[in-house]
Specification:
278 residues; 15 strands; 35% strand; 3 domains; six-stranded antiparallel sheet; SH3 type barrels; alpha+beta
């Protein structure tokens, strides 16, 4: 079937028109029992009541799009033709018996598979949040991504179902959980630096760097990830681990600010500061 447009119609007008009750001259009536909009797909459950007393149920699928000056339009389908859209609510499948057409049974299997996959994604998100909240000192959550040029990243924060990461390319990104294929808890390499005092300078406090980001830098510094330091400086740091010597790390924050972390010899104090305060 093709597309049908109503000049001047809004999306709301179109939906209201598509779910209205209908009755033809022969007395056959059609009632929309339930409807749900997923993106620009309108899913409906219909009951056709004939004058003979026969009652027929079916699942409708209307694709909707904005036709500009032609107004909003729709392309009507139903499950018997096996539409390549699978966001139909599972409850609709329970309300309507499978018509067992050439395509309907396979389409229903795809709908259930889609919802199973969505459930796995929700569980994955829940598991990531729990792992992030329960992580121990020196542990980080590494995520592996799909449908993205970024392959891996370290979770810095989780806020309103959005996951903030530092990616393998050094960039900072905010991702919805659907891009995360799996995750793992990793221990940052290297002996732990244990300081009695952690000092943030006035410059750092006024720099606008999120507290959780500074905490991540501190965790990395204390676990042997020295950030932007040269290979020579990293080797010097590793030597200092044997004698509780001078340790320094350098990181770039999400707002572009460069931050230094310096642990004094003896490991009594670690200071977080900006380059101009060094």
């Amino acid at each position: 079937m093709g597309w049908y447009y109503t000049p001047g119609a809004s999306r709301r007008d179109l939906i209201r028109d598509l779910i209205r009750e209908e009755k033809n001259e022969k007395g056959t009536a059609r009632y929309c029992l339930k409807h749900v909009v997923r993106g620009n797909v309108l899913w409906t459950v219909w009951n056709i009541q004939k004058t003979t007393g026969e009652s027929i149920f079916y699942i409708g699928c209307d694709l909707m799009q904005n036709g500009g000056k032609d107004g909003w339009g729709h392309k009507p389908m139903d499950e018997s033709c096996g539409p390549h859209y699978y966001t139909c609510p599972l409850s609709f499948l329970e309300m309507v018996p499978d018509p067992k057409t050439q395509f309907s049974t396979g389409w229903r299997e795809n709908v259930r598979a889609y919802h199973d996959k969505q459930a796995d994604k929700r569980k994955n998100k829940t598991d990531i949040i729990k792992a992030f909240n329960d992580r121990k000192e020196g542990e980080q959550i590494q995520v592996h991504l799909v449908r993205s040029v970024i392959k891996t990243g370290i979770v810095m924060d989780i806020y309103r179902s959005r996951i903030h990461i530092i990616a393998d390319n050094g960039g900072r990104y905010i991702l919805p959980p659907k891009f995360i294929e799996r995750f793992e808890v990793i221990n940052m390499a290297g002996p732990k630096i244990i300081s009695k005092n952690f000092i943030k300078t006035v410059g750092v406090c006024n720099s606008g760097i999120p507290h959780l980001e500074l905490q991540s830098f501190l965790n990395w510094h204390c676990s042997g990830n020295y950030g932007n330091m040269t290979e020579g400086d990293k080797e010097q740091n590793n030597e200092s681990l044997k004698t509780k010597g001078f340790i320094q790390s350098c990181y770039t924050a999400s707002n572009g600010a460069v931050v230094w972390l310096i642990t004094d010899p003896g490991w009594e104090t670690t200071t977080i500061l900006l380059p101009e305060e060094y």
